[in-house]
Design a protein that fits this description.
heterodimer; A: 193 residues; Four Helix Bundle (Hemerythrin (Met), subunit A); 6 helices; B: mainly alpha; flat; disordered N terminus
Amino acid sequence: MQTDAVVESGRYPPGDLAIWVFILAELGAFAAFFGSYAFTRMNNVELFNHYQLTLDKDAALINTFALITSSYFVVRAVAAIRDSDSRGCVRWLVAALVMGAIFLVVKSQEYAHHIGEGITLSTNTFYMFYLSLTFFHFMHVIMGMVILAAVAVKAKRGCYSADKHTGVETGASYWHMVDLVWLILFPLVYVMR
Amino acid sequence: MKKRTVLGIRACTWVWLLMMSLTLITYMIGQVGVGGVSASMTVLGFALIKGQMLGDYFMGLKRLSGFWRWPVSLWLFLPGGLISAAFMLVG
């Protein structure tokens, strides 16, 4: 059983440097979103606390578990390709994609429930933030899954090796960013009151 | 010139388990319905710790030196600071 993986260390992060510029831009947008939510809440504390109770915390827990686990699976995929194990890399990426799919299904069910109750962006300020913030993130999950799927296909074709796997690291870095954002979003929107 | 080093998958596995545990505690605090600054800051603190661990171990930034060592840490400070300020001002 593999317990260690060889990685590069130095001055630059794993993957293509361009994805990191993109990641920083995305994180900046989400930081602004989080700040806006928190400061808007200051003038609407009772409204935010009341409607926060209508959210499904069980679904949020499942989704947080799914994203953290998917990120861990992606770590294993990167470790596998650094060990020249293309098949292992594909298996871990598929496992990560399954976790991503679980997130999408659970989140879609939440949206369906809200839509069924007639809730829209204009229902109130809390739902405006909740729906727009989570849907913005939802779209990033889809984008991340497309990237991971493309990486998995290339890995299956044998395009990566221990010496040449920047594509795997690039996809992994983006996926970790998607997880990172959710780690803040989950407590902020579902728990903090 | 880059040097090769060893990333412990075992360490990442422990990080994953710790992140899952902190998530479960966060969920339980939410289920109890505890509010206020203390509970909110505790939950936010857990999230920031998880974010730092994700950056350090999953993204692999812990092993870098120079500018790219710090983007995730600095980013966590930004929303963490804004959210903390907003919740503390409300009281």
